[in-house]
Fold this protein.
Amino acid sequence: MLTLYYAKGTAALPVHIALEEAGAEYDLRLLDFAKKDQLEPDYLAINPKGRVPALVTPEGVLTETPALLAYIGQVFGAAKLIPDTRFGFATAQEFNQYLAATVHVAHAHKHRGARWSDDAASHDAMRAKVASNMTECAALIETHYLQGPWVMGEEYTICDPYLFLVARWLKGDGVDESVFPKILAHRARMEARPAVQAVLKHHD
């Protein structure tokens, strides 16, 4: 049995979708960030970072969304959530790492300025850059990464739930979504998937 620790509005969403798509048996543990559940000793013993997602597996605990997505894709191979070539898998990892290391960080500057500066005045400047930075990221995804209809082309993979998360952020981050029709179409395709509909009941 797998156990996914998650919070609403976080990067646990694509991991939850991947588990559902894979047909995995798993348990869900919701953390309330408003109550600082993620900082309780019991959870810090599972994930000392005090963040989500965390996936408890028979082999140990995994954290970081790209790692969890890759693990699910490999463990549940019959679901075909990862490309079957080394280069294809590396390409999927490249995309997911870009979302984690660049796009998520750009998004986080809206609410998490304290991670980068103790000067409260600088937080406004960080927030002011979110729309342009996220627009730049979306443009790269639209023109370079999103092959269509899915990120990797014809096959649905672990990249698609992750892009879905990012696509849900864009409007709130001040991005003009209308100039990214491929991303919008991808989001609509994701919303039509039964697994996504089932998962969103726990996250919205």
User: Anything to note?
Assistant: The CA atoms of residues 22 and 79 lie 5 Å apart. The chain has eight helices and four strands. The beta strands are 2-6, 26-30, 54-57, 60-63.
